[in-house]
Amino acid sequence: MTHADVTVIFNPRAGGNKQRFLFxxxxxxxxxxxxxxxxxxxxxxxxxxxxxxxxxxxxxxGDGSLNEALNGLLDAQIEGHEVPPLGVIPLGxxxxxxVEVGLARKAKAIADYINNPGQVWIRPGLVNGRAFFLMxxxxxxxxxxxxVSLKLKRLIxxxxxVLEGLRNxxxxxxxxxxxxxxxxxxxxxxxxxxxxxxxxxxxxxxxxAKLTDNAFEVxxxxxxxxxxxxxxxxxxxxxxxxxxxDVSVVRTERLTITSHCGPAPMQIDGExxxxxxxxxxxxxxxxxxxxxxxxxxxxxxxxxxxTVSSQPMLQIxxx
Length: 319
Ligand SMILES: Nc1ncnc2c1ncn2[C@@H]1O[C@H](COP(=O)(O)OP(=O)(O)OP(=O)(O)O)[C@@H](O)[C@H]1O
Known about the structure:
Number of domains: 2
Order of helices and strands: EHEHEHEHHEEEEHHHEEEEEEHEEEEEEH
Radius of gyration: 19 Å
Shape: globular
Structural class: alpha+beta
Strand content: 25-35%
Low-confidence stretches: 303-319
Bound molecules: adenosine-5'-triphosphate
Mean pLDDT: 91
CATH topology of the largest domain: Tumour Suppressor Smad4
Number of helices: 10
CATH architecture of the largest domain: Sandwich
Number of strands: 20
Helix content: 25-40%
């Protein structure tokens, strides 16, 4: 593969403008890239849709931009096109996907990864037809993402989420959701449907979740008062949320969630997007995610039928 085969979609608004860091990375990598800069929300989706399959496509931004590019690939797949492998140059505020695949936020490490990426096949999630890599949440986390001040986020980064999260714990909104998984119904106040172990950065929300698995883990929290929400918040920072006696974690590849408290917001891969009700399933269109070699070695080994160069042997149900 020649260096000219690399396309980078750059969100100049991610994590404050990190253009200098991006140029440092590209200089380390010594690659000639086609650099496409976004000019508005949703632009990464439009740009990714047009990138051809022989390219390697990297998104220089946060999880929100990566999600947009993933949806651009989905658009192209629905139109019948083959799509390029997708990777991340982590420039965002939290960058959960980079944490999940073990990509350090250091110029040299990222440059090595750009030059020599491993690959894993992933079936992304679909929520009401929109693709996601990491997770969908509703309850206190979605309320936090929906109400976080963008000005404060630009000033203090992740701290803005902590402050807004605390406000949602002290002044919780009434939340009452019904989660349907097979024949089981759960009545809860907060849900995170996750395909990844990590959440909000380095916190572990579900240690057994895996991007390469054809299943999500549904983390359900019934408590809605200040006591329960602060306990969940503290447990999350100690990576022990899943161990709380009132928290249920259920593995599934399909579920629906409805609201008994009006049109509650959802967060999708860390961005506020849409409202309940929702239907969540696995996408019938797998994508190649470029990851550090170490992650590919571990996960291709445990994901039978998946190799770097060939199509995965997936049983894909017609949705
Ligand atoms: N040129 C632009 N101007 C304004 N907003 C943009 C532009 N390009 C992309 N966006 C929007 O910026 C939002 C945030 O982007 P992104 O997720 O990449 O960064 P972040 O929020 O800092 O990182 P993270 O999601 O990891 O916390 C996305 O929802 C995207 O639609």
